[in-house]
Amino acid sequence: MIARPKISRNERETTEIGAFEVGNFAPFCCPGVGAQGASASDVVAAALAGNAAPSRASLRLVVPVSRAVANAPDPRAKAAELRDEINAAVECALAQPPPASIAPHQRAFIDCVLDTGALKFGAFTLKSGRASPYFFNAGKVCDGPNVLSLFEAYAAAIVASGLDFDVIFGPAYKGIPLCAGVAAALAGRGVIAQFAYNRKEAKDHGEGGTLVGADVAGKKVLLVDDVISAGTAVREATGILKQAGAILVAVCVAVDREEVTGGAAPPEPGAPRVSAVAAVQRDLGVPVVPIVTLTDLLAYLDAAKGGDAETAKHADAVRDYRAVYGARRS
């Protein structure tokens, strides 16, 4: 932790924040970005520490970057690069809600996916090409006790949301066990709903068609899935439901990564930072209810890290990733 001399008109005291005020009360962040070793997200977090309602208009900070610029082959280009990096970190920080405590069902869900290896920390290359410090795969929850915990977490999130629906729909393939298990978990909470799912290939004998289970025509349908990455699978499932005469009322997923859509390249400074979940909500006109968000996961890690250096390392890596790819919350 970095000592922060907090300068006032009459006195100077030392606190552990990571920045000190200079001039007309602008935080001077120390160490600086670049050669001094701090990341843009670190110095922005230090500047915002203790600010209950930060805004771009109220944020003023001074970040030392002189050595990184002076030692660069092209100082002008390096200065522009650092400026953009810091501005992106500011945009992302201002877009995020303050840390909050998590609900019991969210804690149970995170415990479950960590225990089963469905949620892992490390270095992972996503389909988008991004290098992510964490990876979620609901398919790893594949034993009786843990899958029951998974279904219960979905049921708790759905009940808490107050959604009104008749049928739970699971898109093939991961959605197939989800819709059945979530319907059973909801029944244990007194919420009775039918379930249905689709086949990848249409059946040309027997009852035929691509839909199995409850008749969705004219019914209010809740779609359940594990995660929304680009939103392609959800949109495809929506098309199937629309063709069958169903009324989609909401989507429930396990994890909202709260990151922008696109490829490996970071968003340009000033570009819209819209998440896949927000895009689905906008395009389909229905709410998306996650069991946990990335913000919830960070709250869990912060509560658990204490003296655990490894957990603290994971939390820092996730924050650095969010500083680059984090979506702006509406």
Topology overview:
Layout: E1 3-7, E2 12-16, E3 19-22, E4 26-29, H1 40-48, H2 66-70, H3 75-95, H4 104-116, E5 119-125, E6 131-136, H5 144-161, E7 167-170, H6 175-187, E8 194-203, E9 209-213, E10 220-227, H7 232-243, E11 247-256, H8 276-284, E12 288-293, H9 294-305, H10 309-325
Parallel strand pairs: 7-8, 7-10, 10-11, 11-12
Antiparallel strand pairs: 1-2, 3-4, 5-6, 8-9
Helix pairs in contact: 1-3, 3-10, 4-5, 5-6, 9-10
What does this structure look like?
- By secondary structure, the protein is α/β, with parallel strands linked by helices.
- 39% of the residues lie in helices and 22% in strands.
- It contains ten helices and twelve strands.
- It has helices spanning 40-48, 66-70, 75-95, 104-116, 144-161, 175-187, 232-243, 276-284, 294-305, 309-325, and strands at residues 3-7, 12-16, 19-22, 26-29, 119-125, 131-136, 167-170, 194-203, 209-213, 220-227, 247-256, 288-293.
- α3 packs across α10 (309-325) and α4 (104-116) runs antiparallel to α5 (144-161).
- The longest helix has 21 residues, at 75-95.
Descriptive tags:
330 residues, alpha/beta, two-stranded antiparallel sheet, 10 helices, elongated
Structural class assignment: alpha/beta
Q: Main beta sheet, described?
A: 6 strands, mixed
Q: Rg, please?
A: 23 Å
Biggest sheet strand line-up: 9-8-7-10-11-12
Summarize the structure.
This protein has helices at residues 40-48, 66-70, 75-95, 104-116, 144-161, 175-187, 232-243, 276-284, 294-305, 309-325, and strands at 3-7, 12-16, 19-22, 26-29, 119-125, 131-136, 167-170, 194-203, 209-213, 220-227, 247-256, 288-293.
